[in-house]
Amino acid sequence: MRTPGDANPEQPLDAIFGSVAVVRVLRELSDGEAHAPSYLAQRTNISRPAVRDALIRLERFHIVVRVGEGRVVLYRVNDNHPLMRRLIKLFRAEAKLESDLDDA
After folding, report:
1. What Cα–Cα distance (Å) separates residue 90 from each residue in 1, 14, 66, 78, 80?
2. Which of 35, 56, 71, 79 is deepest in the core (most CB within 10 A)?
């Protein structure tokens, strides 16, 4: 029996995007740069543990990749992931809409 937190294998996006933290982290990483978890926590206004959990989830699905080792570990989007181009377009459209609404 599945619990509400279990991902349906037929709906993998639920498992990938199952939290606000994941979406906010992805939104910040969609700039194409590599960022430290501490930077992402500050920019997203999400706790470091929540950012870490989001990065672990995104890394598990190969949406983000780790850059560096040891004490200096950064994360960036995996440009080869089939969802990334579409997600980047979506985040840009979201930013434009927000800007247009601010101008109105």
Report:
1. 35, 17, 23, 16, 17
2. 35
Report which secondary-structure segment, H or E, holds 37: helix 37-44
CATH number at residue 91: 1.10.10.10
Do the domain assignments include residue 82? yes
The domain containing residue 65 runs over which residues? Answer: 17-103
For residue 7, is it within any domain?
Answer: no
Answer yes or no: are the C-beta atoms of 32 and 76 closer than 8 Å.
yes
Flag whether 90 is in a domain.
yes
pLDDT in tens, 1-31: 444 445 555 556 667 778 889 999 999 999 9
Under 8 Å between Cβ of 56 and 25: no
Query: What region does 37 belong to: left with phi over 0, alpha with psi -120 to 50, or beta?
Result: alpha
- pLDDT tens digits for range 26-84: 999 999 999 999 999 999 999 999 999 999 999 999 999 999 888 889 999 999 998 88
